[in-house]
Amino acid sequence: MSLIMASFLFAALLLLVPGILTEKAYGPNPIELTIVNSISNAPNETYSTDIVFRGILLGAMRRLQQTNSDFKFTYTEDPNYGPFLESVNGVAGDKAEHTYWELLVQTGKNGTVIRPDVGIGCYIPEPNDRIILNFTKW
């Protein structure tokens, strides 16, 4: 019986200690979103936003679009693969011209740029990640 009581006491203590299982530990985390046009060499555009703990990139992009009138994007929902980014700030990919929006991430940990194996609907950014939406050709 004392082992059970100790377990309940420990669980209750975790809920009371600041930063453990609370909003401080799991609250919004900053990320940067940079728009790069590798085809026209237009100046990069960088936006800052927050992402909730374990939140998907698509959610952060929607929040940014609602709070910043300079950032716009559209996507379609593929029944097999999920959200597919179509356009960013009025620039759309085109199958005939072989252009698309590529998702890259510069990690906040060591600055390495990676190409995630998932898209905007599944990618879960880490705090201080720099999300790069790169308009390019295939």
UniProtKB/TrEMBL annotation:
Residues 1-22 form the signal peptide. GO terms for biological process: cobalamin transport. Keywords: Signal. The keyword Transmembrane helix does not apply. The keyword Glycosyltransferase does not apply. InterPro entries: Cobalamin_Transport, Transcobalamin-like_C. GO terms for molecular function: cobalamin binding. Transmembrane segments: none annotated. One of its GO terms (cellular component) is extracellular space. It comes from the Eukaryota. Gene3D superfamilies: 2.170.130.30. Residues 65-137 form the Transcobalamin-like C-terminal domain. This is Transcobalamin-like C-terminal domain-containing protein.
